[in-house]
Amino acid sequence: MNDPRIMQKFADVNAIVTESHFVYTSGRHSSVYVNKDALYVHPGVISALCQEMARPYEAEQIDVVVGPVLGGIVLSQWVAHHLNARRTSGETLAVFAEKGSDGVDKHFIFTRGYDAYLPGKNILIVEDILTTGGSAKQAIEAVRQQGGNVVGLTVLCNRGNVQPADVGNVPLHALIELPLQTYTEEECPFCAQGVPINTRLGKGKAFLARQKAAIQP
């Protein structure tokens, strides 16, 4: 059961939007959207949520917090901050993984010298929203390729009923779980009913642009 205190923090900044037609980053459609960007503009809210994300872990046992770009950058900093507040010695570092920029490698990689901080270290992965778990799994694989030991994945919201097996058999902790009904474009009832796609939130604008390009001669 979701903690009412945490749910209220999402509600206070209108981070859960319902009764519309959304397209997720994964390409799936739904009538509910978790607007993580509504959280990020409130540092106090994000700080409090990241404190909860860090709570299940022994501070001294986490050497580095890793987040995938872009939202994971913010989360990695705040989670590491709250872990450090509980440490009696040493320091938990925060780094981020980014997509390859050569136009070919679309998986997460570590640049800026961050790869040097991972081998042999205990790593906590942070992510904002899980729909399929694909991005989190890629970040986990990137850490493992660098010789890091991934001890857990902690997220703001698991909206796709993602399980540890979906992300490389890593223990998973989510602040809230919203098992939402999602659909492919082909099976989406909102598309079939002609419900307009929300272009303000999610990837609806890009989805419509691709549709338009596909039908142009």
From TrEMBL:
Catalysed reactions, as listed in the record: orotidine 5'-phosphate + diphosphate = orotate + 5-phospho-alpha-D-ribose 1-diphosphate
One biological process term in Gene Ontology: 'de novo' UMP biosynthetic process
EC primary class: transferase
Gene3D superfamilies on file: 3.40.50.2020
Binding-site residues, orotate: 131, 159
Keywords: Glycosyltransferase, Magnesium, Pyrimidine biosynthesis, Transferase
Cofactor: Mg(2+)
GO molecular function: magnesium ion binding; orotate phosphoribosyltransferase activity
Protein's pathway: Pyrimidine metabolism; UMP biosynthesis via de novo pathway; UMP from orotate: step 1/2
Residues annotated as transmembrane: none
Amino acids binding 5-phospho-alpha-D-ribose 1-diphosphate: 99, 127-135
Domain of life: Bacteria
Pfam families (alphabetical): Pribosyltran
Keyword Magnesium: yes
Enzyme Commission no: 2.4.2.10
Residue ranges of every copy of the Phosphoribosyltransferase domain listed in the record: 59-161
Functional description taken from the UniProt entry: Catalyzes the transfer of a ribosyl phosphate group from 5-phosphoribose 1-diphosphate to orotate, leading to the formation of orotidine monophosphate (OMP).
Quaternary structure and partners: Homodimer.
Homology family: Belongs to the purine/pyrimidine phosphoribosyltransferase family. PyrE subfamily.
Name of the protein: Orotate phosphoribosyltransferase
Lineage: Bacteria, Bacillati, Chloroflexota, Ktedonobacteria, Ktedonobacterales
